[in-house]
């Protein structure tokens, strides 16, 4: 299902967090949401999985405003894998955690049926968590847990996946495997990623969030210009597509000096930072 | 339970107990002699049934509260319910006639106290419509302390005889059980346990953390509110008739989790069952260890259960 975020404003404890955010993911797209710490990425996700009500604006999954749907109906469309998703899960086994994904498909009196069983088993197999399916979730490593949480999200049978730093704390191979897994689902995905290389690898499109506003959005290579990397992320770097088709980012040894005379607020495209960025990254474009 | 009914200050043979209970339940067979019948049917049976109901009720609300506030230490005592009930009971015991003006017995006052404490925790633990687990626990602890202070103050005004009654009440007992008390308690405990078990799947989801639970389609704040109300009513009802009994609400749920798993759809019925068995056993010991005197339940629940629980904790690796 497609995701549309239209002129979203979010305020937390009276301070504005998101300002006039628009975003679109077409059916089947994988869209990366990138931006420095505190830029409002997780907050935007919360509005999408219905955990934080926006002050203004609309989030549509398919054709419906998620805030006009019930929590349960919305959760049958959107599944989320979150950073602090572990919670106090002592005692539940991996299979029981994955089965939580079936919760939105049942009311108070609903009992597990064949379809639930199939969805859970299928998610367990797809995410490769079968070998530890009967173990206590609390006893798993970080990488194993992330797979289990992804399996839970897939068991939800979602039309939209929302991922917050799914690959944090994972070794490089586990990261790549997880990205492949997400691609293979074919589900429309919005993924917050800190690692720009991973974002470039996984996503069709990127949306860059900075200080609560969308700075730019579009195909990966168009977005990750040296100017943007300098302005938003404060690094001298450039992104280029290599012979194997993978987009990689090359970083200069030193980041740019913090706050070097730039105005806070919307990115100054012609600022001095951008100039410095360009001097490093013009190479092969 | 039959064994528990047969043993006491006077031991009745198991066969006779069976016969008497059978006679009363089905109306068939012989009733046996009057004295034995009196002991078995009018004293022991309601007592054992009440112990089972109280054990089940406390254990189930402990299990639910631990999940609702995501804290393994939570139970009716930590959340202030028990202290609310204690204040209610102590007020009636010490002020006696003064409070009885509203026709309030000790039980009714204890129930009101527990529910009042629940309502306070509910109100204080809420902010902007959100019920954060940590805020709920801290509100519960604070409310508990306030009720405890008030209780201590009231006790200072009490006579020694009243103090003894107060103390016995605070340590809990099912000695005074009578048949006419049982119907309301039975209904509340059975219905409460059944209803909370229906929420089992959502309680499981709550274990995933608030944001994830929301993404799984659970209205976290509303669920917390409903569960808090249900467990306050359940706790209030059983504490009202049996006094403030500790340990059961805290340990029995953990015991079941550690041995049989944490899926609430199984956890809650099993917790009810084990809580019931445990309190029947404890009550049996309380009236046999020091025959013909009786020990309060509160002393034995922890004394017996804690060593076993500690052993289980050491054996279990899942908590590391």
TrEMBL record, chain A:
Q: Which UniProt keywords apply?
A: ATP-binding, Nucleotide-binding
One Pfam family from the UniProt entry? ABC_tran
Q: For the ABC transporter domain, which residue ranges apply?
A: 3-236
Q: Per the record's keyword annotation, is Transcription regulation included, yes or no?
A: no
Superkingdom of this entry's organism?
A: Bacteria
Q: Where is the composition biased (Basic and acidic residues)?
A: 275-285
- Which protein, by its recorded name, is this? ABC transporter ATP-binding protein
User: Per the UniProt entry, what species is this protein from, by scientific name?
Assistant: Streptomyces musisoli
Q: What is the lineage of its organism?
A: Bacteria, Bacillati, Actinomycetota, Actinomycetes, Kitasatosporales
TrEMBL record, chain B:
- Please give the CDD domains that the UniProt record associates with this protein: TM_ABC_iron-siderophores_like
Q: Where in the cell?
A: Cell membrane
Keywords for this protein: Cell membrane, Membrane, Transmembrane, Transmembrane helix, Transport
Topology in the lipid bilayer = Multi-pass membrane protein
The record's annotation in InterPro entries points to: ABC_BtuC-like, ABC_transptr_permease_BtuC
The residue ranges crossing the membrane are 48-65, 77-95, 101-124, 136-156, 225-255, 267-289, 295-313
Cite the Pfam families for this sequence: FecCD
PANTHER family linked: FERRIC ENTEROBACTIN TRANSPORT SYSTEM PERMEASE PROTEIN, PERMEASE OF ABC TRANSPORTER-RELATED
- Family in the record: Belongs to the binding-protein-dependent transport system permease family. FecCD subfamily.
**Name the record gives this protein:** Iron ABC transporter permease
Origin species: Streptomyces musisoli
């Amino acid at each position: 299902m497609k995701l549309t975020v239209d002129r979203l404003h979010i305020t937390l404890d009276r301070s504005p967090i998101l300002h006039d955010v628009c975003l679109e993911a077409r059916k089947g797209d994988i869209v990366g949401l990138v931006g420095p710490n505190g830029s409002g990425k997780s907050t935007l996700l919360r509005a999408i999985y219905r955990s934080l009500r926006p002050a203004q604006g609309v989030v549509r999954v398919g054709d419906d405003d998620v805030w006009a749907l019930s929590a349960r109906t919305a959760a049958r469309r959107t599944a989320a894998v979150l950073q602090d998703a572990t919670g106090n899960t002592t005692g539940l086994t991996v299979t029981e955690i994955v089965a939580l994904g079936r919760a939105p498909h049942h009311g108070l009196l609903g009992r597990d049926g064949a379809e639930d069983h199939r969805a859970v088993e299928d998610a367990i197999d797809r995410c490769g968590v079968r070998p530890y399916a009967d173990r206590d979730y609390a006893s798993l490593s970080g990488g194993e847990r992330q797979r289990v949480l992804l399996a839970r999200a897939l068991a939800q049978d979602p039309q939209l996946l929302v991922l917050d730093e799914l690959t944090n704390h994972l070794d490089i191979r586990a990261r790549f495997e997880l990205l492949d897994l997400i691609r293979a689902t074919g589900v429309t995905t919005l993924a917050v990623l800190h690692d720009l290389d991973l974002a470039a690898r996984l996503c069709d499109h990127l949306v860059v969030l900075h200080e609560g506003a969308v700075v730019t959005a579009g195909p990966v290579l168009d977005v990750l210009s040296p100017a943007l990397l300098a302005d938003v992320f404060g690094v001298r770097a450039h992104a280029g597509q290599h012979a194997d088709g993978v987009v990689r980012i090359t970083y200069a040894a030193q980041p740019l000096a913090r706050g070097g005379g730039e105005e806070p607020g919307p990115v100054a495209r012609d600022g001095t930072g951008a100039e410095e960025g360009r001097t490093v990254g013009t190479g092969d474009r | 339970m039959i064994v528990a009914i047969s043993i006491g200050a006077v031991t009745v043979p198991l066969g006779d107990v069976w016969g008497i209970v059978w006679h009363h339940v089905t109306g068939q067979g012989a009733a046996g002699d009057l004295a034995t019948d009196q002991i078995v049917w009018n004293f022991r049976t309601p007592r054992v049934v009440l112990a089972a109901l109280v054990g089940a009720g406390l254990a189930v609300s402990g299990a639910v509260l631990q999940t609702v506030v995501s804290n393994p230490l939570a139970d009716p005592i930590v959340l202030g319910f028990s202290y609310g009930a204690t204040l209610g009971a102590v007020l009636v015991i010490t002020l006696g006639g003064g409070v009885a003006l509203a026709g309030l017995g000790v039980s009714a006052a204890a129930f009101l106290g527990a529910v009042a404490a629940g309502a306070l925790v509910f109100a204080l633990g809420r902010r902007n419509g959100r019920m954060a687990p940590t805020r709920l626990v801290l509100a519960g602890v604070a409310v508990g302390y306030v009720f405890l202070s008030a209780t201590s103050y009231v006790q200072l005004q009490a006579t020694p005889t009243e103090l003894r009654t107060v103390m016995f009440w605070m340590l809990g007992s099912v000695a005074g059980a009578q048949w006419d008390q049982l119907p309301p308690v039975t209904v509340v405990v059975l219905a409460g346990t059944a209803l909370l078990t229906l929420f089992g799947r959502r309680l499981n989801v709550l274990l995933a953390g608030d944001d994830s639970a929301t993404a799984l389609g659970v209205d976290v704040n509303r669920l917390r509110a409903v569960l808090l109300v249900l467990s306050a009513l359940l706790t209030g009802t059983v504490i009202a008739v049996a006094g403030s009994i500790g340990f059961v609400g805290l340990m029995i749920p953990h015991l079941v989790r550690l041995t049989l798993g944490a899926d609430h759809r199984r956890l809650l019925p099993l917790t009810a069952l084990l809580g019931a068995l445990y309190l029947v056993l404890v009550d049996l010991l309380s009236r046999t260890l020091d025959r013909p005197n009786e020990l309060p339940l509160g002393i034995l629940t922890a004394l017996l259960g804690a060593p076993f629980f500690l052993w289980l904790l050491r054996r279990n690796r899942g908590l590391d």
